[in-house]
User: Fold these one by one.
Assistant:
Number 1:
Amino acid sequence: MANNDKKISKDQFQPIELSADKGEELSRPEISYWKDAWIRLRKNKGAITGLIVLIFIVFMALVGPIMNEYAFDEDNYEATNLPPRVEGLEWLGLNGHQSWEVQGETPEAAIENGLTGYEVDEQYLISSEIVEEPTEENNNYYTVEMTVDIYPAKGLQEENYWFGTDKFGRDLWTRIWKGTQISLYIGLLAALIDMVIGVIYGGVSGYYGGRIDNFMQRIIEILTGIPNLVVVILAIIVLDPGILAITIALTITGWTGMARIVRGQVLKLKNQEFVLAARTLGSNDTRILMKHLIPNVTGMIIINTMFTIPSAIFFEAFLSFIGLGLQAPIASLGTLIDSAFDSYRTYPYMLVYPAIIISLLMIGFNILADGLRDALDPKMRK
Amino acid sequence: MGKYVLQRIAYMLVTLFIIATATFFLMKLLPGSPFNSVASKLSDEQMAILLSRYGLDEPIPVQYFKYIAGMIQGDLGISFQFNNREVTDLITSRIGPSAQLGAQAMVIGSIIGIFVGMAAAIRHNSWVDYTANFVSIIGISIPSFVFAGLLQYYLAGELSLFPTAFWDGPEYTVLPTLALMIFPLAICARFMRTEMMEVLGSDYIELARAKGVNNSAIMFKHAMRNALVPVITVMGPMTVSLMTGTLVIEQIFVIPGLGEQFVSSINSNDYPMIMGTTMFYSILFISVILIVDLLYGVIDPRIRVSGGKD
């Protein structure tokens, strides 16, 4: 401390002339609520990563299906169960090699069985490895893992299926991005329902209060008592399983959480001075609600919407997975994962890609929502 | 308090009544009958016998009242598909595995989650915190069926540590429980972390420190107990996740539980079974919510349940 004192001489300082009008002047640039939130969001590495991942997935969902010439429902029985192959990325394992475990009395017999069973010519056999010696348990058979170059073996040297094909020979690349489109549509729909029905319902209920509020809250109480799954099952039984049934189920139950939050906030805000001022100036109820109250709740609305989106996406995938959602040949990430489950030991790539994409989508939305909550909700500031 | 409890139970009954009514009439709206697959093989008389056997020849309002009256007495009708057994009987025979899985996942998942959340809050902004955060984001984000697939592929398939599927002893419960408990774990960890951080910043913790209470006593006796109270509120979402979770997990691991049966009854248009299971799930869900709300008021006297909570 003492050293520092010596270095700074007195003439380095100058008194500021203080005039009356400058005392009130703001010395720092004005930062609006949104700018402030954006600055805080930008500092949150996780949220920004989530945002980038989401932008990438949205871009791919829109562009992916038109990046190659295959259609999502175009089956090709010449090209069933092909593993992924990408030109130039062979070193990553995307080389179109397929491995099977085959059995036989001798290793040679096992390979012979495999080649005839899968209709592959011997020249395409790349490698083979004994994985299990004969024991009593497996009838004294050898189990051999054989790897073949399946594309030329099927006479498809010219083709490249980037994510492989399914058991009908449909291109998984196109199907997966089409499925991602469905997930994004569901997410968007849930967000829209939340923001329209939820916000208006909650706003009206909170603003008018009294008997209207009481009545509207009782309806919500009953609706939240009904599990989402039950509503969707009822919708599916009456309509056919599909996007319409899921949309209806979301419309019936999806907005109650939002309505409760908005109502709580509006209840808190409606007795404040700015509302009184607006009323004194002659604003009617609709204007006060839409122009004065709702904008003050925007932060909460955005946060809540961001949490609704991933749960809606999960809900659709889950329904499709148990066979109550979308039906073939429409691809959704849930149906893709479901059909991959039949044979993922032999064809793991069918499960891996849709599983990775839905996980990334969910993680992206969740960490972005977390980041937005920290950025927009001042009470959550650490 | 007494009035509040009664009021809540009344709402619960109204909700159940609405669900039952909606379920019943939606079923009646459906085209076709459960005997569609055999209809062409039967004569008119045989069909009439079948219909009267299941009470389907009566006018719809009569059927409705019979259904509601039966339900009050715990009778949910007779299943069309599963060898004409009573729905109530089918549910009770299938509930065992589902309940066991659900309970294991809930108990183990929440206990681990609570400790993970506590550790994260105590070592705030350290690698413990970041790891816990990462685990909870992953747990909330990755769908249980994806997680179940991974477990099945690696732990059962590649490493052969546990059986791949079926239900034949305690070792068969390991993988399904793991797959099911990731969500309770994640959500508890998250909630516990937030609550614990708030509690640790409060005055009475400061006082305990000033008094010279040792650190572990502060954490377990003072902080943990208080932080645990709001964690009860996650029981609601947790039950829902376990309910929906068992549907997929039982399918993946081929477990003879209620969820697996529910899915197959939907696919075979077995109306009484669908209605019965729907009601069963609704009762379970609504009761859990009610219990959570009441418990919350009992445990934390600061929360006056009768006051508007929202």
Number 2:
Amino acid sequence: MHIFYDLLLTILATIWDVLPIAAIIFGFQLFVLRKAMPNLKKILMGFLFVLLGLAFFLEGLEAALFPLGKLMATQLTDLDFILQGEPKSSLNWMHYKWVYLFAFAIGFATTIAEPSLLAVAIKANQVSAGSIGIWGLRIAVAIGVAIGISLGVFRIVTGTPLYWYIITGYVFVVIQTLFAPRLIIALAYDSGGVTTSTVTVPLVAALGIGLSSTVPGRSPLLDGFGLIAFASLFPIMSVMVYAQLSEWIARREKRKST
Amino acid sequence: MKSIRAILKSLLDSLRDLLPIIGVIGFFQLVVLQQPIPNFGEIATGILFVVIGLTLFVQGLNMGLFPVGESMAYEFAKKGSLFWLLVFAFSLGFGTTVAEPALIAVAKEAAHVAAVGGMIIDSEQSRLSYAFGLRITVAVSVGFAILVGVLRIIRGWPIQYLIIGGYIGVVIMTFFAPKEIIGIAYDSGGVTTSTITVPLVTALGVGLASSIKGRNPMIDGFGLIAFASLTPMIFVMAYGMVV
């Protein structure tokens, strides 16, 4: 079966990606810190697991979900599907309801499966001694990505400039920062960057390119970009909202019990 | 027996993480587009691979990436050499970004946009050098971001001032940068942080904040990724203006 041959290639590619990181880490450990790493054997095993894990993960996505997801993005943005037999002149942004729904759903679903978000959630859970739930954080981030990508799709359909949305988003983030609990701020800023990697980017990029090449008047070169920017901005807001909500609920419970 | 049960449990956890995607794609394929699912066998194998991969990754995270990031943070703090810590921070940011496949793809795309938009001569040679320059720019910007982020943890600067300062930088650059580059610049912030970099850098930040007196790992330890996704936007727009 050729999936196993592909897997081998993916493992080699992953080794190639990990090589510079491993070189930096072990180089500094040997020449600057000049100390043997504690539990070296276990750590090397861990690196091997990460390597194999990523290779399996990427190859599996490539074999199962990406082709179907990408094809779906093209089919859903196809004008014949959008218009459902209506004349082309009646086309407006409301015809794209399935595309918005798909953007929302795929944004949410891919974020839940994102390994780097899982890593940050595990760490945040450890550091906060359990007060930040792994699932709470992941769902908050996923909702942010879902809203972000749907809004980004709306932007491509309507052709409004990207920076209006992003700058408005920044203003919201700044205002929220003033009111959010101090403990969450750094984590919220981080969750903007971690959301978009292995699972989300390929599917979202396919959606952006599909849309911008079928909506009349858009060009994939100028309008195809920007969805990732939405997906990295909105989780910052949704995580701060999550923190404010959980603080508010905790305060109300406390008041009830006294 | 116990370990088999633990492995089964983590496999089930990974499967649960995947259920939303399977559900979404299944729903749109069968209900909205009303088409059958092609190559069922291949898809089932693929899903099995993804589940195994995610499980292995989480195992490796706790055995390898987290402990390495943390133990290096402790040792650097103990050694007390700020210079070498900053050199390490920069190299980690630069080294993990420059070979990042997502960045290579974006840089190629950007060179295409620049050539079509008339910003550079449309030849193979100029495209390649444009893409390469962009990659180096982004990698330097991520290295710089981790360096500043580590310095912030050590000094205990509040993160919001730095981030808001960065936002102001992005807004100002947006008004001066060529229009064609803005979308790519904004996206480049999101693609730079890979699946291996994120846990490593997070563990480094949290480790540093917990080994320096007076720092809170929650308030000061996080935030490195935030810098790494902000500076590329500014640097890429600057690149678009200069080149």
